[in-house]
Amino acid sequence: MNVTAPASSLLPRCTFAPAGTPVVCAVSGGADSLALLVLAAAAGCEVTAVHVDHGLRPESAGEADVVAAAAARFGARFRSVRAEIGPGGNLEARARAARRAALPPDAATGHTADDQAETILLNLVRGAGLDGLAGMRPGPTKPLLALRRSETHALCAAEGLVPVQDPSNADPAFRRNRVRHELLPLLGAIAERDVVPVLVRQAALLGDEADLLDELSAGIDAGDASAIAAAPPALARRALRALLAGGDHPPSAAAVERVLAVARRDVTACEIEGGRRVSRSRGRLHAGPE
Question: What is the pTM of this model?
């Protein structure tokens, strides 16, 4: 495709895979995801745009048509996937899980720097540790993290694309929306500056530190109770997190502390999430069903 000036000005700050690489883009029809489609095509990737329809709103079928038209215009393949969500609590989490299940694990999403700032604050208030405060990591699956939401909207306008407006993005029942529309503006007013670049910069620094701790903790035998007990606590915790990892979520901080107490001989065994019991025998830590 012919790369327009607005797209070419943004591409150097994106982290797409090399030209010619097949890339699946999650495209809802909103400004961020449409910008993702435009920029992936401009980067020379072999793009397949996938629209995931949760069936939550009657207009969602028409939104798929918006994505299909944009994909055709920018030389991308198109696929629509139905991923309905049943009744239950935490609609955001269940919709996110349904999208993940409908998309390949290496699918690219249109998360921006603004999304990164929101994610960091959400992770902060739920008590996340270093990894959560490092936010999302840039790369082929998050190629727009250096761009602002205002830039994706401006790109769509320059390309003559009319993004889909999802009314749920303004619903204060969803915590992310309150962070977006209430908390970030309040923080900006208090700081008398745009705090999104500040949060993004801090996340990048914390990400580097998390990578270093991972590298250092990889040299510890997490099954060796004595090695865990003797290691600096920061490294011992990370080694145990790797040992206990399983499923969609890492072990909680409380679970790691309980296992650390087993390694230190403060207790002989403990229970952790997933119906598992961790015990110490002959100097080794063992995790299994309760």
Answer: 0.89
